[in-house]
Amino acid sequence: MEEITLNKPGINRNQLKLIAIFAMTLDHILCVVWPGYNLPVFVYLLHAVGRLTAPIMCFFVAEGYHYTHDVKKYAVRLFLFALISHFAYNFAFGIPFIPLKTGIFNQTSIMWALAWGLVTLVIQNSTLAKWKKITATVVICIIAFPSDWSSIAIMFIVGFASNRGNFKKQSTSLIFYAALYSIVYMIFINVWYGLLQMSVVLALPLLYRYNGEKGRGNWMKWFFYLYYPLHLFLVGLLRLYLHGNVGVMVGGQ
How far is residue 43's CA from residue 96's CA, in Å, rounded to a whole number? Predict the structure, then answer.
């Protein structure tokens, strides 16, 4: 049955996903056109816009878990999407297809972490003993660590889901885990780019305005599944044109 749109004030799911798509595309193009970390200030500011994407994507995995009628089907779709996106993401930025050849950072796309984030929610809401849930979550965070946004994406999802209905706690959780990610980035990769990761807080006003509605049609879900790997393939072609077959970010060749 088609979902009825009530036109409540605020931003619906489709609109938020379009914002995430725009921010993501901008961020990925910037990574290729201006690789590295010695960047003009205006490029850092544009990258800050790109940080809208991860929180929105994690938020909707948590929402998807809440609303899905078939979590197994949802998980299979995410893992299949993660597999396809692995090759698109690594081609986009010049990262070897075989994971861990060039380190532990940025070895695959955020989709790998999103898929495991869904699995984490299933475990957290199971009847397993608490210590088993904690152990499983730690193991999943290790598995997801080499992906874009690393295991922090897992914790974003858990924070959104476990605090659903309490936006203040959701926001606090996002800020806390983003700060951890920022600190790791500053220590191991680059101080300024690490500080940039805190720009995820820019997504909070948008998520606050989320009205709980899907928007008209079911096209956005399938559009995103197609758009994500396709735009990465085009970004990869741009990389080859500008720089040749070389990596343009940490984890690259």
Answer: 26
